[in-house]
Design a protein that fits this description.
It is built from one helix and 22 strands. By secondary structure, it is mainly beta. Among the domains are: about 80 residues, GroES chaperonin (10 Kd Chaperonin, Protein Cpn10, Chain O), CATH 2.30.33.40; about 100 residues, GroES chaperonin (10 Kd Chaperonin, Protein Cpn10, Chain O, Roll), CATH 2.30.33.40. The strands form six sheets. An eight-stranded mixed sheet has the order 7-13-14-8-9-12-15-16, with no helix packed on it.
Length: about 260
């Protein structure tokens, strides 16, 4: 059972991790709403009483059953609760009726049963049927991922999946760079694009960026993922600043405009 003691000069947390199927999971911390101390914000899940047997999201909201945290490293080392990665994915359990645009009604594009990935700090956490859930807006869902490899993700709405270019191994002068001094690249190749955002009339506006394009994007935008063949990032189309090309004629045409 978790216990939390908050005081102005310090924060003391003592928690016993819960075990499910032999894996250690992050415990829920019971903290008064709105309480924060020295920049530490603790998000407490809303516990749904056992007398309720179902949850029906409204509007454009979606109910997701969260995947459990990884309790072990790739090498089999048991991870302490403090360093376990907070999941960003799960299974869609229920969906709302969608959104209305005047006389047009647009259904939610994510089906029940889909495996989805969502923004890291999105939604409201729920404890329902002894499992962790999240209720969030459809727009907070990054994409659908039915496999274990991020390159297979299908982005939603105005989001774009990009494979990040590898960092330079050496400087222009030929000096080898260490892992710590390599500059994080903000360029990559578009792998997949979403169907586009909804317009005022409820119709989709297709994205102008196409798969295969080399692009430059905002340095601190999007959500980063590690794939089997490299680093990936998913961001909104508005975070893409430019399309890169190696065709000198194309550069000349842009320069003369």
């Amino acid at each position: 059972m978790a216990s939390v003691q908050l005081s102005r000069p310090r924060v003391v947390v003592a928690a016993k991790p819960a075990a499910v199927g032999g894996l250690l999971l992050t415990p829920s911390l019971a903290v008064p709403r709105g309480r924060r101390a020295r920049g530490l914000v603790v998000r407490a899940a809303t516990v749904v009483s056992p007398k309720y047997t179902s949850i029906k999201p409204l509007g454009d909201r979606v109910l997701v059953k969260i995947k459990t945290s990884e309790a072990k490293s790739d090498g089999g080392i048991l991870l302490p609760v403090s360093v376990q990665t907070r999941p960003q994915g799960g299974e869609v359990i229920a969906i709302g009726e969608g959104r209305s645009f005047g006389r047009n009604s647009i259904e939610i594009s994510v089906p029940v049963g889909a495996q989805v990935v969502y923004s890291k700090y999105a939604g409201t956490e729920l404890k329902f049927n002894n499992a962790d859930h999240l209720i969030l807006k459809e727009d907070d869902i990054i994409g659908i991922l039915d496999s274990d490899d991020v390159k297979d993700m299908k982005p939603l709405n105005d989001r774009i999946l990009i494979k990040v270019a590898e960092a330079e191994e050496q400087t222009a002068g030929g000096l080898l760079l260490t892992q710590a001094t390599k500059e994080k690249p903000s360029v990559g190749t578009v792998v997949a694009v979403g169907p586009g955002p909804l317009g005022e009339d409820g119709s989709r506006n297709p994205l102008r960026i196409t798969p295969g394009s080399n692009v430059m994007y905002s340095k601190y935008a999007g959500s980063e993922f590690k794939g089997q063949d490299g680093e990936y990032i998913v961001l909104r189309a508005s975070d893409v600043m430019a399309v890169l090309t190696s065709d000198p004629k194309a550069y000349s045409a842009i320069y003369e405009m």
